[in-house]
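Is magnesium ion placement plausible here? Inputs below.
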Amino acid sequence: MTEQIDQALEREYEAGFVSDIESETFAPGLDEDVIRRISAMKSEPDWMLEWRLKAFKTWQQMEEPEWAHVDYQKIDFQAISYYSAPKSMADKPKSLDEVDPELLATYEKLGIPLLEQQMLAGVAVDAVFDSVSVVTTFREKLWEAGVIFCPISEAVQEYPELVKKYLGSVVPQRDNYFAALNCAVFTDGSFVYIPKGTRCPMELSTYFRINEQNTGQFERTLIIADEGSHVSYLEGCTAPQRDENQLHAAVVELVALDDAEIKYSTVQNWYPGDENGKGGIYNFVTKRAVCHTNAKVSWTQVETGSAVTWKYPSCILRGDNSIGEFYSVALTRGMQQADTGTKMIHMGKNTRSTIISKGISAGRSNNSYRGLVRMGPRADGARNFTQCDSLLIGDQCGAHTFPYVETKNPTAIVEHEATTSKVSDDQMFLCQQRGLDAEKAVSMIVNGFCKEVFKELPMEFAVEAGKLLEISLEGSVG
Amino acid sequence: MSMLSIKNLHASVEDKTILNGLDLDIKPGEVHAIMGPNGAGKSTLGYVVSGREGYNVEQGTAVLDGVELLELDAEERARAGLFLAFQYPVEIPGVSNMEFMKASVDAQREARGEAALSSRDFLTMAKEACSKVQLPLAFLKRGVNEGFSGGEKKRNEIMQMLLLEPKLCILDESDSGLDIDALQVVADGVNSLRSDDRSFIVITHYQRLLDYIKPDFVHVLSEGKIIKTGGAELAHELEAQGYAWLTGDSAENTAETSA
Ligand SMILES: Nc1ncnc2c1ncn2[C@@H]1O[C@H](COP(=O)(O)OP(=O)(O)O)[C@@H](O)[C@H]1O
Ligand SMILES: [Mg+2]
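Reply from A.M.:
I modeled the complex. Tokens:
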């Protein structure tokens, strides 16, 4: 049976193609000069450059963390190129008609058509290719609602006050090694501002694509939901199939002011490397939200890609009655390693958090949940509920759970449940006896296991996530 | 022609021989009951015929309506019209009964070159099957067997059988643990499917079920082979006398053949 499941799990990485696009790419290496050049490429104001240089100094004094349950070759930061942009982007295209057709074709092939008439109605997309944003759709429609959705490089120019006020306010430069590096070298990403009392009229989504060889992607996302506003945002990502490892070190900061709500969903499908662990993306990401009074942030993530994932989308529940949620599906197979989870920092009174984590391990992969729930001294009546479920496919993989709880308030309540199960031979046989092949059986069982998380995703993406799992589990059954 | 013809079937699990030269011939439209002591190999027979991994066939043949089964994967046998109602139905959490059954029906239709059913058509069929086995319609939305009582699980198996309309149904102790009402439901389900071109193997310990589902033949399986075959009256005899008078024989036979 294990053999059958293994076969069902062998599969091709469908997003693994390379686009033939002429790029302007910096030579590998990192020093102050590189940072100045990135800043110059983006025609940044001085304050931005100063901010980057400060972060670089901080980073140089820091050590790469080693506490995660992952094992990878030390990264040579001098072997990475820190900037790559399609040549056609040198003069910024004014509209979609001016965008390099090869770029549009790349996104089309990935199932993300950027021509607005072909798009999913009601979803605006910012497409980031290597180090630059190539296009942001539906901007005018959003503008009418007062919503700002643009590349962060543009926000630095156009909305410097907002950027200055909030950039680094949730994830400080010295927060961790990879965050500090991101502050120094970030290239592009999305910026969102939802004005007071506004419900964003459509889903916002950013699609990240690494194309160039030996480049790192360091995107930066900043979402500000002003008082009483509401936004749902989705991030997707893929990369070509390459033999060497590539680094992705993003920072995402969410600010939910009083009574605001942000729903942030991720479907992460970076190239995971081949079955022997060669190649693949190192995904070292810092994502954090701060919730003011009565605000709510939910993180939903479906993680199927990357060779190594190190990622803990977190909520700082600063305001009274604020709510943080974390719903996660992390699937690892082959030699993939994932160390992911969340931190819920309860500071305000009556703050609530819910954590639902579903880890699926197959092949020789390792999947760890690491979660911190901290109840601060002022967090009267705060509550957390955590449920961590692991599903094992085959007997060579591992699932690990590292829950940390710190309580400084006697009225706070923390509940934790954890289960580990296997895709059993009985379940497989039941499915097959009813006429389903092994591949369909595994994907159905896994999808069932993930149901609680999928139902949190926006409709279109729930379907996409289901399909992604199916593809991830797909292969030839001989 | 036979619906199912099993000849000289030898099979083992983990190097332990369990089926030991089993013969069985079932004509279209017939119901065959299989009885026998615990551990005789009744469930194993169901698994071997339906192609469960880990059950190794050492000798023999099994042909379903002209199709040589033993060379096929489990799902191919199912698509050829073989259905097994499990003695211990397993749960598949989070996968709704509806989703599971539609996927099954569609997979079997696809194998026959038929188009997948529309969700609406399938829903109509599923509701009908669900009422037939007297489960509330809410069971269609619940996870497969998730949190079902023993009796509900057995009825759920029958519902799947009704939807798949197999050629040959093997019911493995579908009556055990059922109260009289549930037993009637299971029997009605089976009887509603009885036809000239469909056959049943009913594995049971109790003659009670056979009052509701009238068998054409009753076989006694012991130590991996059929040691006695009779009509419906044999079930009554077994109920009254147990198996000892038969299995005593069988032990000698086994000793002879292995000598
Ligand atoms: N997976 C297995 N591994 C080892 N022995 C098994 C396995 N399955 C069945 N057996 C053995 O095979 C024999 C027949 O079992 P089974 O077919 O379940 O009997 P029945 O259904 O007639 O009670 C028993 O001795 C049982 O212990
Ligand atoms: Mg049995």
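Short version: The longest strand of chain B covers residues 16-26.
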